[in-house]
Structures
1.
Amino acid sequence: MSNIVLRMPTDNNVDKVDNVDKVDRDEECKQKPMQTFEIINWIAAGGHLFNATLTLVIGDDKQYQIYDTYASWTPYNGTCPTNQYKVNMSKGTFLVNPRDKAPTMSLSLLWLIFAFHILSALFQGYAGCSKNYASNITQRGVNPLRFVEYAASATIMLLCIALVSGIDEYFALLAVEALTFVTMILGLIAELLFDDTKKDYRLKQIGWIAHFAGWVTMLAAYGGVILKQYFFSLEKSDEGPPEWVTVVIFAVFGLYNIFGVTQFIQLCCKFPIHKIYKEECVVSGQKNVCGSSLNVFIEMMYVVNSLVTKTLLGWMIIVNLIVEDNRDFCA
């Protein structure tokens, strides 16, 4: 019978195994080279930071008074102005002005511009540092942080647009902010429901509903408040606003629509709207656009458009903040 010899591992063998494991771990820990969209994201973050810094360096502050409307009651003095009415009470006769208004706060245009630049820089820098950023884009086709940032920065941006276009009523500004915020949350819902790892076509149906609901809230904020006020002012005034105000209003409106169109294209490529009632999800493999995968192309579109839109808006307003404030408020 042959003898079975058991050999204990020597120290040298243990060291070799440890070295192999260490090499494997080192290989796993090596960072993959940054992809093009990650580089563009960092360039955009730097661009937003540059805009934020320069805003504070060269910008001059302008305060905008925000007014609240209320019904004022004053003792009747024998005259009843237009748009007011008399009310007889036990204490006497009073005049009621249902559209009286008074300033309740002021907003700094300079700091609002700085805020949406710095928020964009911080969020995109955070996304670039996130270990899941690249995999979320390439494997899932989602970037939830993008719409979280838009919910803050885009809301501030439209607040700036409203202020420079002459909207100073608290409730109108609140409507613009709330509708813009809801728009971005609906965009976030649509993006998450179109996650490439989710194959249930019913989720895509809900995603389409959220996307189109976002168009409704966005157009209500921009068209129903900002553009409506702009055209009504032109109709009732002998002279229109400065040309730069008109350029800002319509330029940002066009650039904002690019965000919605970008998501519309993204959703169509993943699950065409004409197949919304069919139990088939068209995400079989990555689609390519302009030499890049659909997910990467869409991410670069969002990042570039965000930088361009906020840079244009910021500089259009900053240039006018540099000019001496020629508003002469009547006492």
Note: The domain at 36-72+100-322 is CATH 1.20.1070.10 (Rhopdopsin 7-helix transmembrane proteins).
2.
Amino acid sequence: MFRFSSLLGVALAFTVVSTAFAQEVRITSPANGATLAGPDVAISIAVTGTTLVPAAEATRLEDLHVHYLLDTDPGPYLSGSTPVPTGNPNIVHSAALSYTFSGVAPGAHRVVVLLGYSTHAAFQPPVAPSVAFQVGAGGAPTQLPRTGDADSQPGAWLAVAGLLGVALGTLIRARRSRRF
């Protein structure tokens, strides 16, 4: 029993650790709060833990791509139950590491980059970094969005909990073995 439970705990901890940071999307430009000349705005990202596949070429559910959402609330899509729609010029489905929105009006804007499955449902747990920026002269955006960086890594807490569980289980087993 000791060996099986120890191996199970270690396997669970490694599984959680390996998936906690498996997929990451970071917006590399523009910087949050930047003022851009416009009217064309280029968004660049870095992706780790997966290879993006154009949605039209996806053959498996886990063939991931990103959705660039300009001034669009990602809320309805974050649960993964509602697919990200097509046909909206402010929502772009892509496997590219950059996308340029053309003709962006002066003022405050926000782009969310949402990682999604081939079905256009959001990857779970959601990976959705965002950036707020200003086009043309003007003040700062009235409300800066959450970047999602801290919330996009809930698996890290699960990994810590798994490792603590392994340590606690080992301690309990060690105390029990002293009694006999």
Note: The helical segments are 2-20, 154-179.
3.
Amino acid sequence: MVSANHKENQITVQRQDGQQATYDPKRLQGIAAYREMDRDFAQGDRIQFTANNRELAFSNRDVGTIERIDNNQISVKMDGAKERTVTFDAAQMRHFDHGYAVTSHSSQGLTADRVLVNMDTKVHPELINTRFAYVSVSRASEDVRIYTNDITVLSERLSADVTKTSAVDLQKAEVEPIHNRHQAKEPPMPNSREHSQEELRCQILAETTIHAPENINTTADIEHRYNAPIQAALPKEASDYEWKRETGEVQSYQHTHTGIWLHIDPQGQFYDRQAQPITRETALEHSGQAPAHSMGDNAQVQSGTKDTNDLGLGL
């Protein structure tokens, strides 16, 4: 770009042949702006693509490993469950870069044995939050290490919740059946200490070791702790349940539509509201047959009744 006229909303660019062109970005769509940079590549290097390509069937930020370089022809074995190799002419398809580090957003859907996460507290505060921490940390299958410039500020930033309420969620709340509202709160389990989400957040943050950044426990640990049982027991239906509380090792969930409650421990054992073990079949069977009526203080409700490689991540 040579110049910009903010008053007229126009920019002037210079082509490779030296000629200049002025245009209004609002009227010219479908362009790709990028900067050319020199990079050295060799066989075995990790590579990521920086633009979509329908012909080669890869998307922006897809990653892989270079298998062969023959003049300008580069063959890349793509990551993923299905093995496939793409070959392209580097002189023609130039949207690629080294793939040893990716952003947290680009890492969604990826899994690596070891993950190194760079969390710089000097960036915009809204970029460091519980969602960023959860996505980054959960990419690792064996080991994750967090590197930061200020561990005290980082602990505060990771407590920021950026969850937004969608129009669909608001609509669900408005049309929720009246009989479900009566049974929204289930009596507590007897003889046990229940913990709310905020109590768990404070507990895990308090356990953070200030002098050992590699062992930082973030609120992502909380999400994994109370979501893992339902995801393991009901992987297809887990998104329909909302975590409510923890009682000992037992996590309690409520169905977002029907108000049904389930209680599961980390080993996948189901329980009723008297903290007695029951089978998975019993819990699910009862949850589908629960009567639609409000519960008194002495009502007894059983569980299910209504009531691959190293990867670096950065911002």
Note: The chain has three domains: 1-31, 46-99, 100-315.
4.
Amino acid sequence: MQTPIDLRLARHGIIVLLLGLLTGFAIPLFHNPHFGNAAHLVGLIGGFGMIALGLLWPALKLGRSWSSAGVWTMVLSMYLNWLGLVLHGAFGSGPNAPSSAIPGSLLLWDHAGQIALTLGAFMTLFGTLVALVGLRKLPVLAEMRSAVPAAVSMK
């Protein structure tokens, strides 16, 4: 039996959350701790965000192919965002960068991190737009609006 797509999204959110937590322990080992801290926060925020999207995803009005494209784009984008920051902070150039401890040049790791971050940013944008399109006129939201008393609702 195949796992529903919303549970897959939540499962990957927990994995990204775990990566972010583990990155927090490694921040002192990064030669650029600012990027290490950013990778830690991207893992935490991205992980919690994907868990929340996993709860929301079944309510979206999307076709099967758009739903699948949106989910896997979001999953891959969070991994790429985290990985790009880790590559920059741990292996790229920075104030305390080692001279030859890592294979390849420091600029190679900087470029690899930048490519991962750029791809991740565009994929996050695409996945967010897919989710936004799926939020159009949800019956659940219409019921919630009608349940709010007129005095409380803002017009």
Note: The first helix runs from residue 5 to 26.
